[in-house]
Design goal:
Blueprint: H1 5-19, H2 24-30, E1 35-44, E2 50-61, E3 67-74, H3 79-96, E4 101-108, H4 116-130, E5 139-143, H5 149-163, H6 187-202, E6 211-215, H7 219-230, E7 234-240, E8 243-246, H8 253-263, E9 273-274, H9 277-281, E10 287-290, E11 309-311, H10 320-328, E12 332-334, H11 336-339, H12 342-356, H13 362-387, H14 391-409
Parallel strand pairs: 3-4, 3-5, 6-7, 6-10, 10-11, 11-12
Antiparallel strand pairs: 1-2, 2-4, 7-8, 8-9
């Protein structure tokens, strides 16, 4: 039975609040979003009929700044999923020190079943429906599963029509020609590779000698593979929704990405044998990277995981029960809110550049991203060692401490009568 992602993130929050010795009111505020909008979006299809799509936008907490988070077009989008994703975004921003709270949006649709014109109408319709609650100072969306830079361009154009002026900072992940940032396309995958490298050091492994398995080979998975390969790691197994490939001598990540662009899947890549999802999770590799959707490492398959490290490129890929199993097995897990934070970090850089109307080079972007992510990793690792907790718990403790302090100084709650454990 699938784990409800909202229940999973609530459990993670409660655990961190208890370790921090915070009063119950902090958990009560953080366990649900501050605001959620549900909308119906009528779209005229190419055949003249009208189809209505269900859409959502969740704003979890804005104590640290405006909400920030992607827009997902996927047939399995639900209200609880969007809520959970907005909550993970709050902690992702908090853990790396960005001046944002968490937001997330989604539409229950399979974008591959839409024509380009239908996709554009849906994108514009969604932004019209939520335009009253977004803006550069309120909530800044971005691409997510099933959306891309072109979809963001349509959405910004529609928002500009509504407000009557050019407002590029309303959305990030835009095309370069329309206010996008250099380094944004591969930012999440680049960040996952950086964090895997740093984690390998702590495990006394050299990333150049590491073998890697990747679940999911879309934007995040492919760029993770490409950047890990550039760091010297060997990709041996990859699966996507259609199939999988394996070669113990290594798979060329860049050529595989090109194969996916041409065929739509990793399967049948030259020089490989087929691989199932279950087999991928059981591979004897150094690094396992779930880069697909939530709830992929579960109570059922966690006992089969042999990797020394799991580096979470997807949001919420490990269920709480699976987390406990991996911990008992001594597997080092780098949590999603750190490992895949590169996307929101460079989205923040894009927002800053839009507001300044001054743009940085790709080298500057990557250098700034690396500094932010390595500092965050080291802070989390140090706290995990100090309190003898896993990396996920330490990450939540740091993020919730920052959010709690912001809520306290803003007068959202009376100062705690308890003593928080982190000075």
């Amino acid at each position: 039975m699938a784990v409800n992602p909202l229940k999973a993130v609530q459990e993670q929050i409660k655990n961190a609040c208890e370790l921090l010795n915070l009063e119950e009111s902090v958990y009560e505020i953080l366990k649900e979003p501050l605001r959620v909008m549900e909308v119906s979006i009528p779209v005229q299809m190419d055949d003249g009929t009208v189809k209505v799509f269900k859409g959502y936008r969740s704003q979890h907490n804005d104590a640290l700044g405006p909400a920030k988070g992607g827009i997902r077009f996927h047939p399995d989008v639900t209200l609880d999923e969007v809520k959970a994703l907005s909550m993970w975004m709050t902690f992702k921003c908090g853990v790396v020190g960005l001046p944002y709270g968490g937001g997330k949006g989604g539409v229950a649709v399979n974008p591959q079943e839409l024509s380009p014109t239908e996709l554009e109408r849906l994108s514009r319709g969604y932004i019209r429906a939520i335009s009253s609650i977004i803006g550069p100072e309120k909530d800044i969306p971005a691409p997510d599963v099933g959306t891309n830079a072109q979809v963001m361009a349509w959405m910004v154009d529609e928002y500009n029509k509504i407000v009557g002026y050019n407002s590029p900072a309303v959305i990030t992940g835009k095309p370069l020609i329309y206010g996008g940032s250099k380094g944004r396309v591969d930012a999440t995958g680049y960040g996952v590779a950086l964090i895997a490298r740093e984690a390998a050091k702590k495990l006394e492994m050299d990333i150049k000698n590491c073998t890697v398995a990747i679940q999911g080979y879309g934007n995040v998975g492919s760029y993770t593979g490409i950047h890990l390969q550039r760091l010297g790691a060997k990709i041996v197994g990859v699966v996507d929704i259609y199939g999988g490939v394996y070669n113990e001598r290594g798979i060329d990540a860049e050529k595989l990405a090109e194969h996916v662009r041409k065929t739509g899947s990793v399967k049948d890549f030259e020089g490989t044998t087929s691989l199932t999802n279950e087999e991928l999770f059981a591979l004897d590799v150094d690094v396992l990277i779930p880069a697909a959707l939530e709830n992929q490492i579960t109570e059922e398959n966690a006992p089969n995981v042999k990797a020394r490290m799991v580096c979470e490129a997807a949001n919420g890929p490990t269920t709480p029960e699976a987390d406990r199993i991996l911990r008992e097995k001594g597997i080092f897990v780098v949590p999603d809110i750190l490992a895949n934070s590169g996307g929101v970090i460079v989205s923040y850089f894009e927002w800053v550049q839009n507001l300044m109307n001054y743009y940085w080079t790709e080298e500057e972007i990557k250098e700034r991203q690396e500094i932010v992510m390595i500092n965050a990793f080291n802070n989390i690792y140090q706290l995990a060692q100090e309190y003898k907790v896993d990396m996920r718990t330490a990450a939540y403790m740091i993020a919730i401490k920052r959010i709690y302090e912001a809520m306290k100084v803003r007068g959202w709650m009376v100062a705690s009568s308890k003593n928080m454990r982190i000075p």
